[in-house]
Write a structure and sequence with these properties.
With 152 residues, this protein is mainly α. It is 49% helix and 4% strand. The protein is built from eight helices and two strands. It has helices at residues 7-18, 34-37, 41-48, 53-58, 73-78, 99-102, 105-109, 114-143; strands at residues 28-30, 60-62. Strands 1-2 form a two-stranded parallel sheet. The longest helix is centred in the last third of the chain and has 30 residues, at 114-143.
Length: 152
């Protein structure tokens, strides 16, 4: 989870996320300002991460469903998630789901030192990721016909 404002920092985060995905058939980026972000993305990656250019060229750039209506009609048509092959049922807002719970951490962490705040927030993010990962396994098992009688 990261909140980045400069395109260079976004490019670095995207490059780290894309490394090791060479064997995937499809990849997508859902970003609330994707129409602005992709301007000159190829030139930026040519300078900073040239080895990822083939992946950038094939990367689907999409708008999250809750942000789409804040954009021009052309952006809504070009970057819509529901018509993107392989991503139609995705809403693209998954990164924002923990904020309701994590905002409460602000009450506890505002009095902490920087190191303690970092450790506490890191623990909270790790716990959120663990819950999400555990839930994916439980959900996958619930779909399996072999475990139809298994009590979750």
């Amino acid at each position: 989870m990261c909140d980045l404002y400069r395109w260079g920092e976004n490019d670095c985060a995207l490059a780290r996320a894309l490394r090791g995905t060479e064997k995937l058939h499809e990849r997508a980026l859902s970003y609330d300002v994707v129409c602005s972000y992709i301007c000159h993305i190829r030139e930026r990656f040519e300078r900073s991460h040239p080895e990822l250019l083939p992946i950038i060229d094939e990367l689907k750039m999409l708008l999250p469903k809750l942000h789409i209506y804040a954009h021009k009609e052309l952006c809504q048509l070009v970057y819509v998630l529901c018509y993107a092959r392989g991503f139609g049922l995705v809403h693209g807002e998954g990164i924002k789901t923990p904020w309701a719970e994590l905002n409460i951490a602000g009450l506890c962490t505002r009095e902490m030192t920087a190191g303690a705040r970092h450790d506490t927030l890191n623990s909270l993010f790790n716990f959120w990721n663990w819950r999400k990962t555990f839930g994916m396994g439980t959900f996958s098992l619930s779909l399996s016909p072999c475990h139809a009688d298994y009590d979750f």
